[in-house]
Design brief:
mainly alpha, 12 helices, 257 residues
């Protein structure tokens, strides 16, 4: 059991190192096998990133208004992740906005420079998340941040179950193996735990709307990636996480009366 727990901890810490800038112990290995197994802990990394955002919001709201506290929470996640997924979102939009053929799209996404499509899309997405969060009651924002970051990373993980990786190499190549049903179930259990946290503040209808909108955004992107690329890239995973997170926040604000 001790060996099992140590191995699973190594997989989680490997995911943490891959998806964030947070420090991990030096004994954590770098093997391709460990990185392949790390995908199951993508939502768990999101839970931790969401917790960082929640703590930043709570701390700064002690002396700042809600708007600035939300900005601080968003800035904390950008710092913790190195804007890893935001970069994927802007690259994906640049590629699909400026390319027609598969190889052209892939070439544009690989370019480190950001184009007009990507810049506009990044600003709009960050603005959408900010506007959605400030519409919520202050007491609900910390748990919503945790849920949003976790659920959206499960959305990206689910993409790895149904699509193939289309590059010969790239930043997501170590995670290119399709995850199994057991690994997806573990990731889904983490997401389910997180999504239930805002229940006392928002109620079941709002949570269902948030999950459904995030799922709809994920399905739309999965269909787009399959049709235009035949699969996904690392940028596609980042884009999925970002759009699913924004969609989740938007769904929570749906009105039912």
């Amino acid at each position: 059991m001790t060996a099992f727990l140590r191995r699973e901890l190594e997989y989680f810490l490997g995911a943490l190192r891959f998806f964030t800038r947070l420090p991990v112990p030096a004994w954590v290995g770098h093997s391709s096998e460990a990185l392949n197994k790390a995908a199951r802990y993508f939502p768990a990394v999101g839970l931790l990133v969401g917790l960082i955002a929640a703590l930043a919001f709570v701390a700064t709201s002690l002396f700042w208004p809600k708007t600035l506290a939300v900005l601080a929470a968003m800035a904390a996640t950008l710092y913790a992740t190195g804007a890893f997924h935001e970069d994927g979102w802007s690259d994906m939009v640049d590629g699909f906005g400026g390319g027609w053929e598969k190889q052209q799209i892939l070439a544009i996404m690989k370019d480190s420079r950001i184009g007009s499509f990507g810049a506009i899309a990044l600003v709009m997405l960050l603005l959408a998340k900010f506007c959605a969060l400030i519409e919520l009651e202050s007491a609900a924002i910390p748990v919503v941040l945790i849920a949003g970051h976790t659920v959206s990373r499960f959305a990206a993980t689910a993409l790895m179950r149904v699509l193939d990786y289309v590059r010969d190499e790239g930043k997501a190549k170590p995670l290119a193996t399709r995850i199994g049903p057991g690994e997806l179930a573990l990731a889904g259990g983490t997401a389910l735990f997180a999504v239930l946290l805002p229940w006392p503040f928002l109620g079941l209808p709002a949570l269902l709307a948030g999950v459904l909108l995030a799922a709809g955004a994920t399905l739309w992107l999965a269909r787009l990636f399959r049709r235009r690329l035949g699969g996904y890239t690392g940028d596609c995973l980042g884009a999925t996480q970002q759009l699913a997170e924004a969609a989740f926040y938007g769904g929570l604000l749906c009105r039912f009366s």
